[in-house]
């Protein structure tokens, strides 16, 4: 009878996989010896494997370039990194090793852009695409960037007042985009996105506020839907509606020459994950070209704003199972030495699932369990793998510690969790490790941040000096 954990994983999934392999009965991720990481730094810990960021950027750029060549598409492709998925300096430094551009969401994003400019990480040729609802400080920061001579700063207009707000404080001529308010899937609680301007209002908005405004040049139409880029009727239908708007706009506004299709590439959330990125990119380029040919307008330059796809698969978290609680005849709770609410907020806030695997003891027998966090909140738990309505792990043994890993957690968790700030029930944020690949192929690690201490939290709460 196959009752070992390795048997379960091998029978359920195609294993090993490109990034997941075994060294004896211990898991390796991108050739990282995870147990060696635990032995050196302890658990809980978070880590970022920086080379994965560049790898994903390069892959997407190649897929788009291949599709452009295949379809003889007379336009360029520009990869933008969506900074809100992770603002950390080490993430931006790695991403900007590649030929990419930046997409911002708020006022303080522009301060990061200015720092990157000062350090020579980006130049005035770098596109800075400014999304989001803009008021006061964001408008001011955008205008300062434009006034400094950054001609490739493109604020994407989200509502009818933003052009007026920008022209009041901007001395130079500047380029803009317009965001389309896409229609949501029928299962949503509302019909149309709160972001952007409705399909039918785009051309009238151009005629009313942009056409005769000598200071403003419309260059970009921005399209994004919450469900992301997926091979279903809803996505292709929304893309076609967007393309019809673009071609109508192009006929009355010759200056518009770029289509921003936003982000939304999914990332691997299960060992059974399947997504044909290359096909999707090829078909998007094909659909854009066909529609433009039908309407007899030049094809647009393509922009994307990939956030989770850029950084998500670089991250991971490792916990130790502290104790097992048998709460009834069927439910066993493995208690981890941290909190899901603190360290993986997406797992409880929006029921997001990550790849979860044992780090050690793969040759041991397995059991069905639930995973509980340390807080006294009933929502601080993790109860199922992406493709199984349960969690199976090597059997708990008090004398033989079990470590578990959550993988592809690199997007949004630190910002949503409030990195460096207060955490639920004052559970401290774990230490964070950066992992880089050396020229000889070996891996090096660096401690980015220590686990939060009591005095860090007490200071925030106002107890400092009492």
UniProtKB/TrEMBL annotation:
Co-factor(s): pyridoxal 5'-phosphate
Name of the molecule in the record: Arginine decarboxylase
Organism: Psychroflexus sediminis
Single GO term (MF): arginine decarboxylase activity
Keyword Protein transport: no
Gene3D superfamilies (UniProt xref): Alanine racemase, Lyase, Ornithine Decarboxylase, Chain A, domain 1
Pfam families: Orn_Arg_deC_N
InterPro entries listed in its UniProt record: Ala_racemase/Decarboxylase_C, Arg_decrbxlase, De-COase2_N, PLP-binding_barrel
Orn/DAP/Arg decarboxylase 2 N-terminal domain ranges (all copies): 70-311
Gene Ontology BP terms: L-arginine catabolic process; spermidine biosynthetic process
Stored CDD domains: PLPDE_III_ADC
UniProt keyword annotations, A-Z: Pyridoxal phosphate
Top-rank taxon: Bacteria
